[in-house]
């Protein structure tokens, strides 16, 4: 990680193989500052270049446009995380432990990167079609990894029988918002992660009694309906 105070012009030239990555990181940091204040649409590539102390063509050397910049910023923040999640989903062993680890890792990752995620979820509708397609592919992959663990847990009897797709979307729906509200809990990220994992896994493992509903004189559960006369 390049320190925020570093300027692009001060990054050493020569044969350093990490120079391009260092420059991209500086551009990312300046762009986040501008997106945070002015929004994605309100920030121009020229303003990003000025904030970096370089010309606009220098920015276009690394990114084809703003959407590509935001897409690559997303990639730089999530690439290692997604590699870990993929390995976890395709590993063997206890599904309960794997899902717990996935929930904890995503919670901690989202809290750590809450500033970027706030901007990302606010501005993602501004992405161009190519960037939206790339993001959609990655998101469908992640959903499939979560679903895989849940399906394996249901098959092994570790999780109660449920619709795996609904369960996966429920887990992901909660985790996608944790960066917004976690600071208000005034608890350590690790404690928030443990609490969320506990709550979700209780729902995955405890059997529910059949839900009953009354419709006129019919008392129904999910399996049976019987006529009951009023006393």
How would you summarize this macromolecular structure in one to three sentences?
The chain is mainly alpha-helical and 231 residues long. Helix content is 65%, strand content 4%. The chain folds into 2 domains: 53 residues, Homeodomain-like (Arc Repressor Mutant, subunit A), CATH 1.10.10; 140 residues, Tetracycline Repressor, domain 2 (Orthogonal Bundle).
How would you describe this protein?
This protein has 231 residues and is mainly α. The protein is built from ten helices and three strands; from the N terminus they run H-H-H-H-H-H-H-H-H-H-E-E-E. A three-stranded antiparallel β-sheet has the order 1-2-3, with no helix packed on it. Strand 2 (218-220) and strand 3 form a beta hairpin. It starts with 18 loop residues before the first helix and ends with a strand. Residues 1-5, 217-223 and 226-231 have low confidence and may be disordered. Pfam families: TetR_C_24, TetR_N. GO terms for molecular function: DNA-binding transcription factor activity; transcription cis-regulatory region binding. InterPro entries: DNA-bd_HTH_TetR-type_CS (IPR023772), Homeodomain-like_sf (IPR009057), HTH-type_TetR-like_transc_reg (IPR050109), HTH_TetR (IPR001647), KstR2_TetR_C (IPR041490), Tet_transcr_reg_TetR-rel_C_sf (IPR036271). Residues 21-81 form the HTH tetR-type domain.
